[in-house]
Amino acid sequence: MMEVCGSSNVSLREFGCEQSLLSRPDGSASFIQGDTSVLAGVYGPAEVKVSKEIYDRATLEVLVQPKVGLPSVRERSQEQCVRETCEASLLSSLHPRSSLTLILQVLHDDGSLLSCFLNAACMALMDAGLPMSCLFCGVTCAIHADGQIITDPTAAQEKESRALMTFAIDSTEHKVLMSSTKGSFSVHELQQCIAVSQKASEKIFQFYRDSVRRRYSKTL
Amino acid sequence: MKDTPLANCERDFLLKAIEEKKRLDGRQTYDYRKIKITFGTDYGCCFVDLGKTRVMAQVSCEIVTPKENRPNEGIMFFNIELSPMASPAFEQGRQSELSVNLNRQLERCLRNSKCIDTESLCVVSGEKVWQIRVDIHMLNHDGNLMDAASIAAITALYHFKRPDVGIQGEEVTVYPPEERDPIPLSIYHMPISVSFSFFQQGTYLLVDPCEREERVMDGLLMIAMNKHREICSIQSSGGIMLLKEQVMRCSKIASVKVSEITELITKALENDKKARKAGGRFGFAESMPQERITALKKDETPVEMTDVTETAYDIVQKAEAPPQTVPSPVLPVPGMGQVGLGLQNSWGLEDDEEEEEEDDDSVEEQEEKVTKMEVEQHRKEQSSGDVVEISDSEEEEVIILQPEIPNRGPKNAGSSSDQKGAAKSKKRQTK
Amino acid sequence: MAAGFKTAEPLEYHRSFLKENCRPDGRDLSEFRATTLNIGSISTADGSALVKVGNTTVICGIKAELANPTVEAPGKGYIVPNVDLPPLCSSRFRPGPPGEQAQAASQFIADVIESSELIHTEDLCIERGKLCWVLYCDIMCLDYDGNLLDACVIALLGALKNTQLPEVTINTETSGPEVNLEKRHGLQIHKHPVGASFCVFDDSILIVDPTAEEECLSTAQLTVVTDEEGRLCSVHKPGGTSLSAEKLQEFICRATARQKEIQKLIDKVIHSVKTAQ
């Protein structure tokens, strides 16, 4: 069995973000990783339907909109991953009996889509000014057929890879909030991918800090 | 989520302003908001900003069997998604009146005007044709969704390229874009919809209403026209009566607006073509405004991998190795097996057998009903000595597991007492 | 008294047990419930299995149908898993179209089938581009008491191992398929993926094989699927509180032990069916 060998050419594609670009939602952000881009919008805290009301915290709803056609089972499972990650970091008990809605629209899929969803979601939640216990970011790792780890793979690299893992990492302790994998891999490979994701997450959190600093540079 | 209602004073203010020929955003009566057209990385992906209204259109295609009454024509399919992102009032997956109206108007504007040559989409007559699907996502609703949707849809259709197909005998091959250049659709003309809103029973008229204005308007007139000044569709809604002169005046305004917008679309398409030809960067990532304070971009960043292998190795090493031996499952009857309550249990209590019996029976009974057929088939004594069967009644079979099984290893002896312990505790719960 | 305490303060009730390193049903923190497997429960299906993990009961039936392969993959058959959570299994599920949990479970099972490569879809092809098998794996929950995913994976594996496909030949004259129901053969199962689910209580206490009650009160859930070679097929953690890499490693070790246990169970049961025939 081939094992992962440490290589130096691991990198994140160029990434960028724009916040509050939509006028209607309470918070919005678009996140771009290479050619992959996602638009996120947040509404809330707002009135909640009685059937969905939770007495001690806010109800979070996540909707993933594919580019073509209607949402399918795949989108549902992505929704679940994003929702439970957001629920872990949001301090939703501060807004009991209210609704939060997060809508994620795929603008272009060129690999690492789930991690882009997570990053866009976090930026939109920040833009909406919702209280959170920590920030989170998503990192996708692919293991190439020859055992090399590729971070932030493109769609073509995803297709060639034999395993694909997406992790959500939190900003306080750099632990794993969410994990979703495809393909089979060894324990050692998993641990390496987690370690790489933790390293990569530092870069993304630095980017979060920079963009927030830039945004409020005129007001502070 | 419900939309925030409009306050009466806000309504009065808006109407008063319109009477004074003033608009909230400082536009004149016949002014359009700023239109911005950008393209995605894919062919057939187009974003349109009309002021703050934002719409995305994506064209896709697939090969389907044609409709029976039109065997030589391709199929056009339009779908307007009122995503809840655009407005909190929009709900996902529910066909609202607005979305039905918009879909119908767009179909009238683009399909019924026969602007697309559907016969050129035929691959094999009566068997295989291309279906062109246009998905339009509303991203931000600030009024006049129809005009934005029609601009986005027609631009995306012009931008779209379908893969080339080859026919050899009966086999149809679809060539990937690397092998043969994809083909653009053949489009005859470019219908564009222009909306007019009427206030005070038609006394006042505004072009390109924004969301606030749409809320206080009395009626809406939508005219779809191409640059040859041919009207493709005209629809009045809201229940106001319009005079012939009013309609004529509107169509004149529309013809001016349409020629302006057509020019803009052609220019945008040309620019994109040039950018693609030059091999430069294009697509959504490039259209992000760099100068805005809310936007930030970072170039490709390397991730250090120096001690990754070591860290991973450490974690794997430090962890406890899984036990090598596993408990043996118990097989009461062929086709059924059970593995005990967990591995190591600190509740190694000695227990009298009767309690265990009762407990096991209750679990087994449920199983028994399901597997009765199976059981009866193999009623004959099973060869392995693990099990003793006693037939208490005709209906139910009771199976008693012997607590001590001779051919088990030392590890497994522990697990059998585990079962007893757990059974006992379960028993306690029910008390 | 205890019942009242449980209803009024469910979280405190569980905490008081967890403090003593045990659980309300008498289990250790790292102990699975009794797992019962019955193979061949549905005589009309091509393969079936019924699994009980404690009170959670899941039944899986496999129906094989002949179909045309897709244009993209002419040499492959396909597997369509579906997880159904009918209202009969728990009061939390409503009738109507499948809810989020059922859809997420279906997707998870589909991912496990694809990732573990337990069946090579090439084996399901009868004639390239013309005819192939489609395996509809319908998994239905009869009683829901937590840890649905583990039970589903065991049921699926048991049912697939039990599946007997009839022999199909293609008539050269009519070029239509001819099914010989007398002659049946089993499927080639290449891997044995088994899942192990865990819950995190109060951000720190880890328990295995949660009941429905424990699932509701937990702060995070995790499912690890491993095969017999110790390779991971899925590390599925949809969200919840964060876990360190060291903690994950603990789970993985427990999951590999569980895999051995369950594979032994399945093998023995399959063997017992064969010898009894």
Rounded radius of gyration of chain B (Å): 36 Å
Could you estimate the helical fraction of the residues of chain B in percent? 25-40%
Oligomer type: heterotrimer
The CATH superfamily name of the domain at 8-188 and 256-277 in chain B is GHMP Kinase, N-terminal domain
Distance between the termini of chain B: 48 Å
Please state roughly what percent of the residues of chain C sit in beta strands, choosing from under 5%, 5-15%, 15-25%, 25-35%, 35-45% or over 45%: 25-35%
Mean pLDDT of chain C: 89
Under CATH, the topology of the domain at 27-190 and 265-276 in chain C is which?
Ribosomal Protein S5, domain 2
Second rung of CATH, namely the architecture of the domain at 27-190 and 265-276 in chain C: 2-Layer Sandwich
| Secondary-structure element order of chain B, N to C | HEEEEHEEHEEEEEEHEEHEEHEHEEH
Number of DSSP helical runs of chain B: 8
How would you describe the shape of chain B?
extended
Give, in order, the helices and strands of chain C: HHEEEEHEEHEEEEHEEH
Number of strands of chain C: 12
Family (chain C): Belongs to the RNase PH family.
Keywords (chain C): Acetylation, Cytoplasm, Exosome, Nucleus, RNA-binding, rRNA processing
Pfam family, one (chain C): RNase_PH
Domain Exoribonuclease phosphorolytic (chain C): 31-166, 193-252
Could you please describe the fold and organization of this structure?
Chain A is 30% helix and 31% strand. Chain A is an alpha+beta fold. The longest helix of chain A has 29 residues. Chain A is globular, with a radius of gyration of 17 Å. The N and C termini of chain A lie far apart (55 Å). Chain B is an alpha+beta fold and 431 residues long. Chain C has a domain of 176 residues: Ribosomal Protein S5, domain 2 (2-Layer Sandwich), CATH 3.30.230.70. In chain C, strands 1, 2, 3, 4, 5 and 6 form a 6-stranded mixed β-sheet that branches. The interface between A and B is large, with 66 and 54 residues. Chain B: It is found in: Cytoplasm; Nucleus, Nucleolus.
